[in-house]
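Pasting two entries for a bug report.
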Amino acid sequence: MAMTDYQKLIDAETWTFIERTNSWYPPETASYSIDRQREIYDRMCREFFAGYPQGVTAETMVIEAPGRSIPVRLYRAGQPDGPAVVLYFHGGGFILGGLDSHDDVCAELCGRTGYTVVSVDYRLAPEHRHPAAFDDALAAYEWAISAYAQPIVLAGDSAGGNLAAAVSHATRGHPRQPAGQVLIYPGLGGDTSRGSYVRHAEAPMLTVRDLEFYRQAREGGPRQEADPTLAPLADTDFSGLPPTVAITAECDPLSSDGETYRDRIATAGGKAFWHEEKGLVHGYLRARHSVRRAEASFTRLVGAIAALGKGDWLW
């Protein structure tokens, strides 16, 4: 297969974002200790922090689950709570990130939709292997449906998109299912021998080597057997899932996962939409204030969350 020409696919604004990211979080960071990786990642996130929209407030609290406590951060755009609730799971390869890494993203989602946003600080690998993160995500959903009467929209980027989808699969048949899910460049456990995994194996910002590192950190060794709580695309049944919007980046090995997931849900008779953002790279949420393509995509994501929270299907 011919080499992908990223100089043609990626515009100057996005290259500036990539270079800025690499100046704070160099590609070789994956070879460092986990603690050092987290330190560098957290510093990078602080550098990109864009503040809160006017009128958005945040409160950090802890929810109790069997044998553990799960920190969450609640964002509100006024009192009382908004007409829907967004349960948000952050990215970071299951080893990085937390309430602060996606703080401004969640605040902006709140400000632009008027919905209450709940960000979940799930346990990280390798200290906490699978299914720890999934268990925390599911516990956070159980807490949310007991705490709020409003519709719950699941959302997440990258690893967080994986968790949102896994919760959607696990809550089929639940008395209160999610109103919808919005998956942002998610990793869903697709076929690594084809599609974007091959075409964009060496993409800027995320490579297949990075993905394998994160997978081993999460699973703790050889690839585990098919398990929808680990890899939603491993499920054999895609019926009964909530309305789904998957938005991926063209220059990202994970992009095909969004397309495959859309196809499986649609084949099973469900509502699913997939859109690939041309010329964008993994992690572009942090570029939403500096790259016009990323800004347009963030507006698309906000619109999807807003629509699903109202029970609207626009696709």
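Entry 2 (this is the one that rendered wrong in the viewer):
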Amino acid sequence: MNPDRFFSPDSATRNLARDLYQTVAALPIVSPHGHVDPRLFADPDAAFGTPADLFIIPDHYITRMLYSQGIPLESLLEGDHRKIWKLFCEKFHLFRGTPSGIWLTHELSEVFGVDEKPSASNADRLFDSISDKLASPEFSPHQLFDRFNIEVLCTTDAATDMLEHHQAIRNSGWSGRILPTFRPDGVVNLDAPNWKVNINKLSEVSGINVVDYKSFIQALEQRRAFFKSMGATATDYAALTPATAELTLTEAEIIFQRALKGETKADDAVHFTAHMLMEMARMSSDDGLVMQLHPGSLRNHNEVIFQKFGLDKGADIPIQTEYTHNLLPLLNKYGNDSHVKLILFTLDETTYSRELATLAGHYPVLKLGPPWWFHDSLNGMARYFDQVMETAGIYNTAGFNDDTRAFCSIPARHDVWRRTSANWLAGLVVRHIVGMDDAREMIQELAVGLAKRAYKL
């Protein structure tokens, strides 16, 4: 891997970027938002399984690309893992020029010492070599956590999760810092799959019989308190739009009762979600948990895939999203509240300079999350720096999070961010917008400092 990868071809900019990058290359990784399974760390003898388990099956970035080329998901998620791996290697060229290709190359080279491109001819040899390493103690989740120099890793956990794996990590005496994040979508979004089942589980785990809106709110507050006692510093919420609106208690009760009876009307879920975003902000003001909002993804767009394989199989598609009017009720009520911190994400890049940068550049409650999902890329980060930073400045952003399920891609993703940050800052220096001393401070913030403060870590 070229040591100057991702830097400008202009020699003056490249030299400065290299110098800036070297100041943060070895800093600890702060991973405040992601989807790594905490079970990996609950058992000191846990292993990643096969190369297919590690690289392919849990990673919808990988499977969606292969599926787009006509490869059935059955052949990627089911059956013999050596065959799955061989199919992946045969199609490795599909990832040329993509973020996944960058991450995969980094993982193979830096983590597993593989410096040849996967192909049909070397697939079996690579499978055996990586399998041998995964079976060794040096490649256990605990050992790689230390090797990756991860300071803290936050998972994403359903509101009904008992966090038994987090408790096991605590009880094990291992020094790794793994924290939960409260994700209430399954009980708050009335149109969530198995909503009534989730409500029954919420009653069970909270010890509060959820029979009306009041007991529902009490159960959510109880779960947030439990998550906080387990080290959580943040919540995470996914909604189709960032619409916010406040219902009266009577209106909320009527909608909730219809949902319990399975008689929801067409707009009930929309109105209730908008109301519950207000409630989540109110709860954050009370308990201090950071609020994250990830809107703008039309989930499970491919009904055939959803019915056969379930959630998170690469069929979630971005939609056009509006923030200024949608967030106005929430910001009018909580935008100046020093106890609330709201980190906003977007899949609609057209909102960066028009709405999000200007909102975050005014409201104390707001921070902008890094480029997310389809924009977590070299070019996506460059566009983010160009469109956001002039208006919001770096200190109204939340630094970087990797938002990954693929544990071994974490160092790769942070490396891309740190290199892109260095390149952007070097461009400011050569144009005499900031001095080198400022740039050195700014890259420390972008690499670690902003995320630690935004997520209270």
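Dev reply: Rendering is fixed now. As a check, the viewer should reflect this: The radius of gyration is 22 Å.
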